[in-house]
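Lab manual, section 2.4: Encoding a predicted structure.

Procedure: take the sequence of the chain (148 residues), apply the prediction step described in section 2.3, and record the output as structure tokens. A sample record is shown.
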Amino acid sequence: MRARAFTLIELLVVLAILGILFTMTVFAWRDALRRQEDAATLHKLSGLFWVSATRAASEGRRLVLCKEGNVLRVRVSSSSPCNGKVRSEIALPDGFEVGLPEGKLLTFEPPGKLAFEGTFTNPFDLVTPQGRYQYHVSVIGEVKVVRP
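Recorded output:
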């Protein structure tokens, strides 16, 4: 009795099915990574306000939030806005847009209160590849994020 082997057609069908499954897995993985990047950026941006207000209170000095391109920087307040030492920053990934103007946006005052500048809009929008989010910032640095 002769042993039966796989034909070339059977082998090609199996390889095609494996290729399709691999492609579907790659696209699902990329989508999961994008959602994770969105969640991480949302969390970092929310934390920026609370941590900076707390830092201003603990250090007993004013800090300012400045938007410089697609980067939000918290700096030590100086005589010239947005020129002090950088205390923390968030660089928004490609495809993310924050609905805030360039320059000085607000001041974190000891004992942990926020003084909004005239250019700061509250709430403000963050647009990501996955959707749009609204940030509502309180005067003590608490942030509520909603998806309209």
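Check your result against the sample. The CA atoms of residues 70 and 94 lie 9 Å apart.
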